[in-house]
Each structure stands twice: as structure tokens, then as C-alpha cells.
Amino acid sequence: MLTIPCPWCGERDVHEFRSGGEAHLKRESRTDNLSDAEWADFLFLRANPKGEHAERWYHVHGCRRWFNAVRNTHTDTILAVYKPGEAKSEVSQ
Amino acid sequence: MSQSHRLPAGGRIDRSRSLSFTFDGTRYSGHPGDTLASALIANGVHLVGRSFKYHRPRGILTAGSEEPNALIQLGLGNRTEPNIRATQIELYDGLTAASQNRFPSLEFDLGAVNDTLSPLIPAGFYYKTFMWPQRGWMTYERAIRRMAGLGRAPDGPDPDRYEYRHAHCDVLVAGGGAAGLAAALAAGRAGARVIIADEQAEMGGWLLSEGDTEISAKPAVDWVEKAVTELAGMENVTLLRRTTAFGYYDHNWLGLAERVTDHLGPYAADHLPRQRLWQVRAKQVVLATGAIERPLVFGQNDRPGIMLAASLRSYISRYGARPGKALVVFTNNDSGYRTALAAHHAGIGVAAIIDSRAEASGPLPQSARAAGLRIYEGHAIIATTGRLRVDSVRLGRLAASGDRIEGAGFGIPCDLVAMSGGWNPNVSLFSQSRGKLDFRAEDGVFVPGQSFQPLRSAGACNGVLSTADCLAEGFAAGAEAAREAGFANRKPAALKVTEPDCPAAAPFWLAPPEKPLARAKCFVDFQNDVTAADLKLAVREGFQSVEHVKRYTTTGMGTDQGRTSNVNALAIVSATLGMEMPAVGTTTFRPPYTPTSFGAIAGRNIGALFDPVRRTPIHEWHAAHGAKFENVGQWVRAWYYPKPGEDMHAAVNREVKAARTGVGILDASTLGKIMVKGPDAAEFLNRVYTNSWLKLGIGKARYGLMLGEDGMVRDDGVTVRLGEDRFLMSTTTGNAATVMTSLEDYLQTEWPELKVYLTSVTEQYATITINGPKSRELLAALTDDIDTGNEAFPHMSLREGTVAGVPARVIRISFTGELSFEINVRASQGKAVWEALIEAGAPFDITPYGTEAMHVLRAEKGFIIVGQETDGSMTPDDLGMGWAVSKVKPDFVGKRSLTRSDTVREGRKQLVGLLTEDPKEVLEEGAHVVQVALQQPPMAMLGHVTSSYYSPNLERSIALAVLKGGRALIGKTLSVPMPDKVIKVTVTEPVFFDPKGERANG
Amino acid sequence: MADTMQDIPVAIAALPENGKLILRADAQNADIRAAIAGVLTAPLPVEPLTSMAGDKATALWLGPDEWLLLCAEADRAGLQQALEANLADLHASVVDVSDAYSGFAVTGPKAAELLSKGCAIDLHPVAFAEGKVVRSLLAKADITLLRTAADFQLYVLRSFAAYTRLWLDDAAREYRG
Amino acid sequence: MRRYSILALARNALGYHEGWERAWRAPEPKPEYDAIIVGGGGHGLATAYYLAKEHGITNVAVLEKGWLGGGNTGRNTTIVRSNYLWDESAALYEHSLKIWEGLSQELNYNVMFSQRGVMNLAHNLHDLRELKRRAHANRLNGIDCDFLSREQVGEYCPLINLSPDIRHPVLGATLQRRGGVARHDAVAWGFARAADARGVDIIQNCEVTGILREGGRVTGVETSRGTIRAKKIGLVTAGHSSVLAGMAGIRLPVESHPLQALVSEPVKPILDTVVMSNTVHAYVSQSDKGEMVIGAGIDPYVSYSQRGGFNVVQDTLHAIVEMFPMFSRLRMLRQWGGIVDTCPDASPILSKTPIEGLYINCGWGTGGFKATPGSGHVFAHTIARDEPHPLNAPFSLERFTTGRLVDEHGAAAVAH
Ligand SMILES: Cc1cc2nc3c(=O)[nH]c(=O)nc-3n(C[C@H](O)[C@H](O)[C@H](O)COP(=O)(O)OP(=O)(O)OC[C@H]3O[C@@H](n4cnc5c(N)ncnc54)[C@H](O)[C@@H]3O)c2cc1C
Ligand SMILES: NC(=O)c1ccc[n+]([C@@H]2O[C@H](COP(=O)([O-])OP(=O)(O)OC[C@H]3O[C@@H](n4cnc5c(N)ncnc54)[C@H](O)[C@@H]3O)[C@@H](O)[C@H]2O)c1
Ligand SMILES: Cc1cc2nc3c(=O)[nH]c(=O)nc-3n(C[C@H](O)[C@H](O)[C@H](O)COP(=O)(O)O)c2cc1C
Ligand SMILES: [Zn+2]
User: Fold this and answer.
1) Fold held by A3-23+36-82
2) At the fourth CATH level, which superfamily is domain D113-180+255-342?
3) pLDDT at position B491, please?
4) How many whole angstroms from A78 Cα to the centroid of ligand 1?
5) Using CB atoms within 10 A as the burial measure, which of B973, C88, D68, D406 is most buried?
6) How many A from CA of B672 to the centre of ligand 3?
7) How large is the ipTM?
8) Based on the number of CB atoms within 10 Å of its own CB, is B269 exposed (0-12), middle (13-18) or buried (19 or more)?
9) Closest-CA residue to D361 (of D265, D180, D239, D204)
10) Which of B434, B465, B498 is the last residue of a domain?
11) Interface membership of B768 toward D (CB under 8 Å)
12) Which of B198, B497, B593 to mutate to test the pocket of ligand 2 (most atoms within 8 A of CB)?
């Protein structure tokens, strides 16, 4: 059972959170110029890696903040958590 | 009632008290401190069960939780429990136990015919037969299911309670034997918060069973008592007896199952839970779960009276029981001699010690020799005899290679066989934690290797055998764990231990049987009746991965999960394949360590506490006025209010009529409400709704559609502008939380530049809708500061004032097409305001209406319900609501998806109305519409009926449907094929009532 | 049953109605902090999971830009107006949620143990001292939990109050033998 | 292949069962095949079998990184049914169900397909509406489906808590009588044996580590046992689909999640059908050995760890004990997890890919066991003909670009 370190609240059981899937997907604000394929990429295509995964979590039963985490999806070890807007590379090392 | 097989003295039982119990209807007695197994043994009972497949007679193999054979049906009626290990049942007065998997009786079991048939039904036989005729399996299966299954489920609901307990600690110690107690002492003394759990009634592990071990020159049990007393006195230590660490999950989260009152049977106090599930987050874990003795695999090694050697010592020393009169020991290591000596000292005749080793020369064999015990070195048991209990063993001399017998076998009569094949470290929890096992070739054991979580193993589970080493490892592990958790400490001094020296065993995996292996019944997995021959057969047929062997033969899949058998099975498979054991590898260890009751895992989250019931502030009024309720998510809403003698139809018709002719009143409090505040609030709404929000005037309301990024309708509702920077948004009842989550997501991650704050106020307000031509008069009667006139208070606008003397926000919106006001007041005042409205409405014959009438009213107007007309595949245009989608906004959620090729294609499903030929005929919601009904399926479907009601205002049935190319079908006649008839329908516009929308002004 | 307060292992009581406001604001902004502190007569608790008691209200940290303000029912409207007035030109939101939440007090030597039947937070005094506040779950209800000198106070959505009460009373059965 | 039968058993009993031959060979991989199937689960093995049987392509290898059936095939709750909502899905699953009905004989391997019925419970008006919608659609698609009233539910399965006073009372149910359960491992083994008998090479402990391409088409795979060439490659690796597709530079609309299940200790038969409930989130059947086989929910995060959170098991057992109060004293014997590959529309992908000669079969998520034979059948067609079978044409990768999804989410069926 995962224990997730919320950047604000500290370690909490996974069931206090909602998983938000892959992080750092870029939502274009002017979507008219995107092809169907580009749009499908944003909507549906996912890295889904076996290994390090930058992902989003929402502390829904806590501080109600969205944040990011890097987790190894093979071992479920959480390598880092960081706030929205912070870059992954800053925390990964 | 005499305990014929009780030793005259000794053991940790309370001889001053007798407890009476029954097994298969016969009454026996035992003492506090007994397990059911030890009490049965003390009464000379060995035959306690039948095996799973061959229904062979089985006795008691072990003295612990690893027991595969002695599975008992405990208790009666709703409290009965199947498959309980007799070795774990603490005796209480009046205990009722029965054997299982036998018919008609334990002694004479018809199922034993399987044993006779066994040559025909080796591992995996069922894959090869029962294939004819094609549906024949349904018949064979019934018979097979009856033969399988072991015990019986209870007859009815469980009368007992179960609890949860969340806990946090610095150090969790699993196992309270020598190593575990030492670890807990070390960590506890350092000041760490410690939890120590042991599955047994008493802490102490094997120390409770070894009469010949001394610690600090006193019997080992004295040290156990001292340790337990010290631990119990520490405020920072929680001692949990009868508590199994059953699961080691990720991130050092462990599940423990405490049996709080099981041992009290019917004497348990009512207020106590039966079991408690501990959910522990530990900074550090010490595993001290001991080791499990390994059986030897030889011909007919499964007869009652054949048990593990150390377990026999346990019955003698710990329970003061005498399992037999004439003992044969079969061993590959010195500890078998320790058992022989213990038996000898207890007055049990030792007929022979059979040692697979060519030579036994350690101190224990020497003591045995000195005591005059007969020893057969280089021998093995090759068969046993006895119908319901072993009555002799046959042995033979092993060839030097160990895989053959030289010369003729011969028999030795006995009524008890103790076997010892060495010790397997109990690595279940370690493996569950994802730890890697290392293989120690000299004694053929898997020991903990690299660990993956903050844990350490200590004692016998770490492959250590002597008590001195177990204690030392325990102290060290406890101290280190505490240190890692931040508690400095001193290394405790070593304790002086005296005990016989028992070096590790040299593996001896399979004694060559007298008969051909396929007939010899050399059992490896006792519970599932898997023999060495089965394992070899599996390998021969190509099931060579250990996981395939497991699944093909079912070895290790019983209730004991192969605790005593897996390593033996692996060794035999490896030998057959000619591979090293670590290369073949173990099967995966999974939770639970021992079976854990559903009740404990469910806790109190059943019945009234299964799922919260959310009620509105006005609920009590509805209940008092006879409302029927419907579940909407967690909410309970008034569905309709039948008057005496009315059925649902009549009640709903009355409510619907009233809402269009007089005044109806509806509790709409469950609608989601979100306060949206900030300078960018309008811009934010502009992005999350499909239509335009920038220019909405203060005090005005607007309907909005919310899409997913995939362009499909997800939610809708009316939002009002309270101020320049302030909106009150409403959502559907079911989606309130989801919408809030999604809006926060956009704000926090996509558009952090927008200055907007959201606060959910769903529960701050009671929302009361008054609806119908008389609603204005009613409102006017209860307010003196709101001008209710049509011009002063136009449709889609908001007024703040008082209603019934209470501050209120009144919004003129309509979900029915009628003149309608939505009155929002503080939740605590909701019921009072509702009652005031009911009272003031009496002259207009005010009629409370429920969700059903509301649905009819909105369907008459063709208004959609998200989740009923939509299913995640409908766009605004599909719903005929293209008008609600801005053509000019550069961006809103879902915009891009509306121009994908599939969203703009012809022939998408579109919302339409349906009218049946027979106006009395109400279509079934969910029914499908076809162009032409055929005699036989398949029929191409155009779509389905989403909503269907009898409309009393139209005096006929109406329905909404989504049909492929629906709008082009308006005017056409189509068919709805039902199982018993075909219903003709005409496609119409989805608006049935007041299509011009004239009534909203009253 | 025990006859002195001391002996009652755990007691559960509904908290009297009080004023509750949700304040949302950017606490990084010194002007905002000052505007709020001026009304609360105490600094806003910006450290996660903490609370701060002022003369008029106690502020509970709920998130980095969200606080629950507890006050006497009589002060509710005044407090909201004062805050809104002080924050008028700043980006902040003050919303009355007095009726949206119901409160319970859980008291007695077994209070933490009782809550730990459904709440996964470490409630041991070393980890959960007086003044600490968390949002979490109690069984299937969202809670805001505060430890005061005298008790644990927990707030749940109004519609979860019945469930919570039932759950607490049922959990307490074990101590009422 | 020597045929299995009761007579063969009797004959072999006399020879101490020494005479049984391997169920499938263990050949060394050849340097080149006509087609390679990556993934030795049920779907991969069935694909290879039908390539050989229906299309005469027998120079085929199935490459499995571990042991056959060790993926989701070996860890699923074995529910088989075809009562899906949308025409496209219903057709595909019904195709499969029809094959199931003769599969043991077809493979000469008893897969113990037990048509004991699958029941889906309705607990509120919304459930009722959705189940009716599905039941009517099934009927018009020629798929058997009964609608049971609450009383009929009680007659059919008396163990269910039918009290009207519970939190989510049972209001009715659909019942597909032809649905049921099967012996999951036997499905893999049976297909393996039958494919092997037609010449397919089944190669275990052979992990594909790279996909070789030249000029937009596949040429072979890199494996832990060397390079193997082929002009047609089918990826059938369920939970690992994204990993394999990634080797070919393709991103998939798929996420891999833990899905857990558990069994109780075995008890004598008491539950004779399969019961599923979406609203209270529980599904259960009793295996022939006597365990209650219980499916837990899906863990919401991506993971390849083949285990999930205990909280999910807890939630499942709340529901099970609520619906079956007499199960409270049964005990959990073992719990485990699989890695399920979920698509945004809860429908599978059986498709060609942008790379010539590369085909993908994935996205079955929580419910592909039931489709095993049908999926293998149509996927073999897709590979052999280089064009989809009409039944899998709607399940292409393109649908995510066009938006033409087959959304089985809203269809009020737990997707198992
Ligand atoms: C707990 C659980 C319950 C379920 N319940 C049901 C149910 O009741 N009914 C139902 O219909 N479905 C159910 N499912 C879903 C079902 O199990 C799957 O959809 C189905 O088994 C998928 O079969 P497959 O052959 O595609 O995949 P798998 O059986 O997973 O086979 C894929 C194979 O690919 C192999 N592989 C992966 N990577 C490589 C590589 N690089 N090289 C070589 N080989 C590789 C894997 O080792 C694996 O053996 C359930 C799933 C789970 C986990
Ligand atoms: N040759 C021999 O006769 C021999 C062999 C091995 C060990 N021993 C002796 O056994 C003792 C070993 O000490 P130890 O402390 O390592 O082991 P132990 O077996 O004495 O204690 C382990 C304890 O852990 C408990 N346990 C196991 N799994 C558990 C779980 N999942 N949850 C809760 N409790 C669990 C058991 O009930 C037991 O009380 C020493 O005295 C040693 O000399 C003797
Ligand atoms: C339908 C089904 C029934 C099962 N029955 C049993 C069982 O009776 N005993 C058992 O130990 N495991 C049983 N298992 C679980 C397997 O032992 C194993 O946990 C599962 O196949 C996953 O593999 P793994 O645990 O090795 O990763 C069963 C699995 C399935 C899918
Ligand atoms: Zn948080």
C-alpha cells in the first residue's frame, strides 16, 4: 500500500489521494491549429513507462492540492514529489 | 472423560481446571493452555480429518499455524468456521468441533474411493477427460464440486463484530520468540514506539517447548516471562498476543489480525470485537518469525500418528501430552535425537531412531545411544502401514547414493512417527516485502537476502538455529532498528544459554519408497494430496517452471500455502530437472501469512456503516409526510409522496399536475453549489463552460454545459453572477465532487495565472424550488423585501432578501418550463422555511413533489438529465444543444474534440422525442428502437429510450430517445421490439409541452 | 458506567453551533497577511497542519491558501464583513460555511484510540500535539480534525453528521462494556 | 499430439503414468519465422493456434518472457460473458463465447467452461435503467439475456442479501445463462498444446527486448535468447503493451494498472453462479475447488508491480460481506494482482499499426479473459490477411484519432 508524501501535509495513505495520471502533458490553449492526431495524442496517448514516471496526484481528502510525483512504476518507490509549476529535473536529482 | 494420553506432570497447562469439549459429537476434556490439537492428543485422538482429493485419513502434523492436515469445522450455526487448524484453536469450555470433508463419518468416508482410484487420477487428470459430451462438464462438475471444498460455510449472517485500528510505530516486531522478544526489549529500552505481535496465545515461540534450554542458568520460560513483564511495563511498547502479521505491503505498511475473543468462545463479552485488524505504518520492521520444521518425504508419510519431530516435543513439553506409546523417529539431523530423548524422558517408548545419514556422531546422538535407544544409521522409512493410524513403519538400508534401498526392507511396529528434515526459515513476510532470498546450499534453505524495505530479519527466520544466536540477533536487530528510527541506545550484553547443540541438517529430499513411486504415496503437499510422483509427472509433461508445477499439481495452493511442503516440492522438481534449486526458484509468497477472516478485513464497514447516507436538511419533513425515497449516489432524495390509497402512478400524476396548475414544492438541496470568487471568475467560467460568460450581468443567471476534453457532455447547471468577481455555480447532484476536483485541477495546474478561488457550499444551503403558476403569489406572501413581479424579477435572475423572515437568495429559473423560484437559505433554516412555504401554500393546495415528478416535468419540456440522456458519448449537438456552444470563444474545455471527424459525422445519435401509437403505453427506459422489427434477432438498432413517462398534462405517454440520425427521422414511424410485442412509435421533437416556452412567466 | 468524568474512557458530543468561514487567500502576500491578522488579532497559521487562536476566531490551516475560521455564532457575520472589508482590494475569498459542517468533540483517555479505528493519522501526542489540525478521513467521511487542550474536535459535512455520529457511537461500544 | 481421454488415462495408469509426453515441446528458437507472437498469454497462444489452424501459417513462434499464462491469463477471476452494450463489443465477445462453448473438444483439453450463469445486480433506478438498456440491446443482438426481478434474484441465488432495508438494496438483475467461468490456466495450456501440435514453436523464458525495423516495416525482434527474424509480428503482451510498443516507437492510448483478486479458503459448494455488482463494487464466484474467487477493484495509479493497495481489498470485502453476510467468517487465503492495460473507452485494441507487419492486440483491461478464443481468432485473421476481420475493424488504433470510441464505461457493467 503506497504512502505518498504530500508536499504540504507529509506522508499519507494512498487512499487520501486521487491519481491524476501522467504529468507535464501540455494542453494547448489554441487547439484549432492542432491536427486530429495531435489532439488525440494529448487526449489519449500516454508514456505509461515501466520505470520512472512523472505523475499527478490530488490530495482530495487532505489539503486539496494537485502536485506531481516521480515514482518507479516497477517498484512503486516514490522518488520525489514537487509542486505544480516546478520542473521535474529540479527534484529528480 | 479421562485424558488417557496426558502426561502425569509438566507442560504449561492449568491442570487445576478442566474444560469439556466435543469432537464429532464425542465429549472429551482438556485444560486451559491446551489447543484443540493438544487436547485431542491427550485424549488419544489422532484421526482428525480427511485430505482434499483422496479423502485419506489424516492426523495432526504440527503444533503451529503451518498445520496442513488437522483442519476442523469449529462451532455451530452462524458462528461456525471451516478449515480452522486444530493446532491454533485455544480450548474453551463447551467448544464444539467436527471433522470435515467426509461422508458419512470420519472413520468411514465414501470419498475414500478416490484413494482407490488414485492411479487413475494423478495430477491434472481432469484436463484430460470429462470432455464428452460437449455440455457434459456441467454434470461432471457438480459431482466434482461436492467432493472438493473441505469445510462448510456458516449458515447465516455473522453475529460478531470486527474492529479496525490504525497504528504508527518506530519498530514493529513480527514474532515473539527468542529473537522477537529480544528485539522488542532492545528497541523498547531505547525509547522507540514498539509494537510486537505474535500469533500465539503466549509469547515465547519455541522457547515454550524446549524443556532442556536454559537462559542465564534458569529455564528458558523464566526469561520469557521476565521479558514479557518488562515489555508490558513499558508505555512505549504495545504487546499483541494472538495477533498474526498477515501482510507486508509497500512502504512498510503491515496488516495484523488480532483474535480478540476467539479463544473465549461463547464467554466473550458482548462489547468486544471478535477480531481486530491492525493497520500499521512502521518506520522499521524486525522480522522474527522463526523457522518451520521440514517433513520428510517417504512412502505413506501421511498417516495419522506421523508428525513433525519438534512438534512432538512441543506436545510433550508445552502441553504435557503423550501422543503415543511407541515412537519411531525418522531424521536427517541431530534434532530428531532431541525429540527421541524428550520422548524417552517422558516415558514414551522409543522403538527406533532412523537416520538417513550414514553416521550420527554429535552430542545428541551420543546421548541417545547412552540412553540405550536403538539407532538405524543410513536407513530410511520406505513405507508405513495402518488404516486410520500408523501401526508400523518399514525401513531399509540406503545405498550410498541415497536414492536406492539395498537389501530387503523390514518392519517396526509403532503408533507414532516423528520426522525431522531440517528447518526452513519462515521467510513469508520477508518475501512479501519484496525481499530477495538467498539459497544456503549446505542445509538447502532459503534465507533472507537483500531487502527492499526498511527491515531486518533476526533469529530462526534468518537461518540461525541456536537460541544464543537468536537472542543475539534479536537484540542487535531491535537496537539497530531503533537507532535507524532515531533512538540512540546501548548494545545489550549477551545472555548465557545452555542447550543441546543441533547443527544444521544435510538435506535429504526423497526417501526411496518400497513401491514404484507412482503407487508409493510419498506425500509432499499433505493438504492437497500432491505426491512426489505428481511433481515428476508434471515435469515430464512439460510443466517445468515451478509456477507451472504449482498450478498443474496444486502443490502449495492449500490453506497452508505449502508452508511445510514448498521447499520439498522445489527440491524434488529441481532434482527431476537436474537443476539447482535457486535456478528453479520459489513460487511467489503472497499475503495473507495465514488465512484472515473477511469479517476482520471488512471491519464495521457493513450494514448501517457500509456507505454513508446523505440526507438533506429537510429530510425529516419528507419522511414524516410519507415520502418514498430514492438513492442518488450517496444522497437519499424524496421520490414521491403517496397519499393514503395512492400508488406511485397516481401520486406522481397528482404531483405533476399540481406543479403545472397550482404550486409544487421540491427539495433540491442536493444540487452541487460552488462559490467562484476572484477577478478572473468570469474568464474561468468562460473556459470551463461551452457558452459565453464574460458579459453576464450581475444578478443574472445562465445555463451552462460542461464537457470533458473529449467533447462529451459531463455536467450542466445554472450559474448566477453575484457580483463583479463572484459567481455561484450549480452542478448536478451526482457530479458535485468530480466537478470540484476538475475545476481545482484546471485552476491549480493549467491556469495558475487565473485569480479565482473556489469554495464548495453545497451543504451550506437548503434549496427549495417552488414551481407553478401560483408560485409567484406564494413567494410574495412570504417576502416583504423582494419584488416578485415579472418585470422586477425576470426569468433567469437573482434576488437577495428574506423569505419567511430568513435571509434568502432567490433565483428565478425553471427546470419544468413553469414559473419557478429556487429559494436558497441557510441549511439550518431549510426545514423551517419549507414548513412556512407549506403553510403559506395551503390556500393554493401546495403539493410537495419528488424526483419522479420532477423528471416527468422536465421530460415534458425535453430537458436532459446528465447521466440519463447522456452516457459519456453525447456532444452538445447530439443533444440538440448546439445553441449552448460558443462559436467565437478561442478556447474552452473540450472545444477541439467537437471538430474531430467522428464528432461531425452524419448519423450520430441525436436526442428526439417518441410517441407511442397507444397513448396509454409507456415505453420501457432502456428499450431500443429499430427501423423495422424482424421476427428474429439480430436487428439493427437505431438507439434507445433514455426517458419515458406517462404525462398527465398531455394525458399520454411520452419518451425521449437518442437515435442515429434522429433529427432526420422526425415524423417517421419506427418500432420498439419488446420480448412479447412490438410497439410502434413516432419520432418527434423532444419538446412535448409548451414548445414556445410561454409558461415560464406564469 | 463510570461515575466521574475521569473514568469515562471516551465521550462523544456534538459541538454547539458556531460560526465557520472558509478563507482563501495567498499567504505569501504580506498585505493579505496583515489584513487578515488585523481582524483575527493573531497571525494566520501558514505552517501546514497548524492552527492559531485569536481573540475572535481560531484559524485552522486546511491548505496552503485555505483556512477554516471558527468563531462564535454571534461573531460570524461581523467577522466575515470585517475580513471582506479589510481584503476588499486584495484577491481573497471569505465564504460562510457555518451550516455546511457539523462538529463533534471526542474526549477522554481513549479518545485517540477510538478515532484511530477509522483515521489513519498518527494521533499519538508526540505526533499530534495540541493545536495540530489535519484534513483526512474517518472511515468513509472527510474530516477536519483539531486537537485542543481538552479534546479532539472533528468537523464533517453536515450530511455526513449522522453517519459520523453512528460510527463514533458504535466505535465506542467497546469501551462501554 | 496424442489424444487425451478417459481411456488414455486408464492406459497410462497401468504404465505408472510414465508414458505421457510433453504437452508442448521446448524448442530452441529458430533464426527466422513467418510470424512471431510476442506474449504467451491466452490471447497470444490462441492467435498462434488460429494462425496455424485457419490460415495455414505454422512457421510461428510464441515468445514468452516468463512462463506461459503467467500474466493476466493466470491471475484473472475467469468470468466469461458476452452481454456487452455496444453492437461492436457484443459481436466480438459473442463470437468468443460461441467458441468457448466447444473449446474443450476443439483443443482436446478440458478448459472446464462452466456455464453457470452471470448475474449483474441493479441497486438503484439508474442501475435498472442501464441494465435494461443493455439487456434489450443484447436481446436484439441475439445474445441471451434475462432480466430478473428481486424475487427471481433470490430464487436464483439465495445467498445474496435481499433485504430491502440495506444501504443499496437489490432491485433486480440481468442474467446471462450462457455466461460462466473457466479454468484459466487450462486455457493457456490447451491452446499451447494444440498450437504446438500444429507446429508452432512455443518458447518460454524468452524476453523480447527490441523490435527490429527497416524502412517502416518490421524485420524481427531482439530477445534475451538472440535475434529472431520475422516479417509479421503480433504484440500480445497485455500489461506490458506500452513497453513493447515503445520498442517500436509507438505511443499507445493505454495505461497499465494493478488489478487485484483474492480467494477464500475452500468450502463446500454454496454459490452456483457468478454474481457481479457495479454499484457496491463486488464480484464473486466459487471455484470448483471451493474457494470464493473475488475480484477487487482496480488501483487508480499506473503500476507494473503486480500488486496493489490493501485498501482496495478492504473496500472489496466491505462490499462482499455486505452482499453476502454469511461470507464474513470465511477467510482470505491468498490475494494477488495483475497488470491490466486499460484503454480510455474500456474497449480493446486489435489493430494494425503505423509500422508495416506490426500488429497489436491489447487494451483488454479488466475483462479480456472471456475474449481469449475470439480475440485470437480475429487477430490471426488480421495478421494473416494484413487487414482486420470485420469483427475487430471497429477496434483499431485510429478510433482514438477520429473519436469513434466504443465506450463501454457508462454501460453499467463491471468490465470483467
Ligand atoms: C485480477 C484480474 C481479474 C480479471 N478478471 C477477469 C474476468 O473475470 N474476466 C475476464 O474476461 N477478464 C478478466 N481479467 C482480464 C484478463 O485477465 C486479461 O484481459 C486477459 O487475460 C489478457 O490476456 P493476454 O493473453 O492478452 O495477456 P497475458 O495473459 O497477460 O499475457 C501477456 C504475456 O506477455 C508476456 N510478455 C510481456 N512482455 C513480454 C516481453 N517483452 N517478451 C515476451 N513476453 C512478454 C507476459 O509475460 C504475459 O505472459 C482480469 C484480470 C486481472 C488481473
Ligand atoms: N534444531 C532445533 O530444534 C531448532 C531449530 C530452529 C530453531 N530452534 C529454536 O527456536 C527458537 C528460534 O527463535 P526465534 O525467535 O527465531 O523463532 P521462534 O520460532 O521461537 O519464534 C517465532 C515466533 O513468531 C511467531 N510468528 C511467526 N510468524 C508470525 C506472524 N506472521 N505473525 C505473528 N507471529 C508470527 C510464532 O508464533 C513464534 O512464536 C530458538 O530458541 C531456537 O533455538 C530450534
Ligand atoms: C481463479 C483463480 C483461483 C485461484 N485459486 C487459488 C487457490 O485455490 N489457492 C491458491 O493458493 N492460489 C489460488 N490462486 C492464486 C494463485 O496462487 C496466484 O496467486 C495467482 O495465479 C497469481 O500469481 P502469483 O501470486 O504467483 O503472482 C487462484 C488464482 C486464480 C486466478
Ligand atoms: Zn496535502
Assistant:
1) Folate-binding fold (3.30.2270)
2) D-Amino Acid Oxidase, subunit A, domain 2 (3.30.9.10)
3) 76
4) 26
5) D68
6) 44
7) 0.97
8) exposed
9) D239
10) B498
11) no
12) B198
